[in-house]
Amino acid sequence: MRILITGVRGKTGSALADRLAPRDDVELWGGSSDPALVDHDRVVPVELSWDRPEGWARATDGVDAVFVVVPLREDAPDLVASFLATTPASTHVVLLSERDPEQSGSEGWSARVERAVRESGRSWTMVRPGWFMQVLTDPRFFGEQIAEGRFAFPHPDARMAWIDTRDIAEVAELALTDERHVGQTYELSGPEAVPPARTAARLSAALGRTVRYTDPGTEGSLEGLSGFERDLTALTYERVRAGHFALVTDTVSRLTGHPARSLERFVADAA
Ligand SMILES: NC(=O)c1ccc[n+]([C@@H]2O[C@H](COP(=O)([O-])OP(=O)(O)OC[C@H]3O[C@@H](n4cnc5c(N)ncnc54)[C@H](OP(=O)(O)O)[C@@H]3O)[C@@H](O)[C@H]2O)c1
């Protein structure tokens, strides 16, 4: 079967490519706005830019299933609807959605993306993970500060059930390749919910050096962001404070047959 991953260079897309690319029954297409940067073994690079709709039909030609990584843009609900209209009618869509989509983004932004998928006429599976462990190493998020020995995160009392994107990828692989997951919505989390100071302690222990927790306050945590991304992040941190990301589910172990990966395991493997 032919499977397209829309964000193959990202934290989830690359983990999913690691699982799907070695399979002999899958022809894997990896979408990127710059396909020359896709260098994953056994992945066919395809141009897929949310800014260039004229290329979408070529990227979705003959696909049986697509993993959709939602762009962080206000018009994502419309973009996803238009993009899915270019896929064959029999395509199965697995959406990388969000925890509590009605409250994610202004005016139910994530819920509107989910609605676009449900109303696409394609079969679907919704995957709703909490925060990814991989933001702790991604230089576009916390990677640099943690490398420097600090972890600045607002709301010291808020617990987070960090999830490893490799667990999301395992669930996505099942959803893309096994029709028993059609019409299902999966709430995914890591194995436990910990406050940020404990996250820093776990990182320190696993790295063998001190990662100090600091509370940057709400404003500090939004530094450098602007526009839609700033508003979305501000709302997300509000949801962090309200405990939306503390939910621990057994979905990963139920579907994959193994417990969700721990922070310690993530750090050890990343090192
Ligand atoms: N982060 C979380 O904790 C979290 C939690 C729940 C849901 N989500 C949702 O997950 C989605 C994001 O997924 P993700 O975190 O897997 O994607 P990501 O790592 O943010 O990557 C998304 C895209 O960014 C581009 N990119 C730019 N610079 C890059 C670089 N240096 N390395 C890799 N990619 C780069 C790539 O597209 P090009 O190849 O076109 O450049 C890539 O596909 C969002 O819709 C978000 O709302 C995130």
Automatic annotation (TrEMBL):
It holds the Pfam family NmrA. InterPro entries: Ergot_Alk_Oxidoreductase, NAD(P)-bd_dom_sf, NmrA-like. Signal peptide: none annotated. Gene3D superfamilies: NAD(P)-binding Rossmann-like Domain, UDP-galactose 4-epimerase, domain 1. Residues 111-214 form the NmrA-like domain. This is Uncharacterized protein YbjT (DUF2867 family).
